[in-house]
From TrEMBL:
Domain ABC transporter: 2-236
Pfam families linked to this entry: ABC_tran
PANTHER family, per the entry: AMINO ACID IMPORT ATP-BINDING PROTEIN, PHOSPHONATES IMPORT ATP-BINDING PROTEIN PHNC
Protein name as annotated: Amino acid ABC transporter ATP-binding protein
InterPro entries reported in the protein's UniProt record: AAA+_ATPase, ABC_ATPase_HisP-typ, ABC_transporter-like_ATP-bd, ABC_transporter-like_CS, MetN_ABC_transporter-like, P-loop_NTPase
Amino acid sequence: MIEVKNLRKSFKGLEVLRGINETIAKGEKVVVVGPSGSGKSTFLRCLNRLEEPSGGEIWFEGTNICDPKCNINRLRQKMGMVFQQFNLFAHLSVKENITLAPTKLKIMTPAEADEKAMQLLNRIGLAEKANAYPSQLSGGQQQRIAIVRALAMNPDVMLFDEPTSALDPEMVGEVLDLMIQLAEEGMTMVVVTHEMGFAREVGTRVLFMDEGQILEQNTPKEFFANPQNPRTRDFLSKIL
């Protein structure tokens, strides 16, 4: 589904991504871990060109999204993105947040978008919040709304950029539970996270990044039980 070839990204002369090569197949749940500043979020944001790569290629479902002729906005419709901060529109109700993109892009009629929104809200047990505003929700509820807002576009892949890092500890579980449901249903996912329990339970592969490179990757079982790279071992010894 996604193929990354020699991906590079620099900010004002500082090389943040240093020639990454990676292939993500349909249905995989790829978890990206590593210390702060290792390039994890930049890598994720390059996958849908929220950050413009400085070099290399990113192929999504057979299209090179780095090609100037690529209609990136159309491709982004197939790539749901969930951020650390919820980024809900404060002046819109929960249902309006969910229906805005499908109706604005004419993917659905307003009636179809409303029906889809209520299906998604029922799924996460927040149907009664359809007419509430983001400020009236807890952080965990807002992040779950952000996830179903992305799901309303029927994406082929979901990208998660540390989706629980802005939450109070007691709210983390409800967001991870929803992500686990998506994984069990076969959604292709790329997840940058510090939640090692999620990586163990849900990931099909764990990638360890440091200094702008993927230094090691393996199945969760092998990654945590038998890390090969000294920097991976040092990282895991500090967080486990």
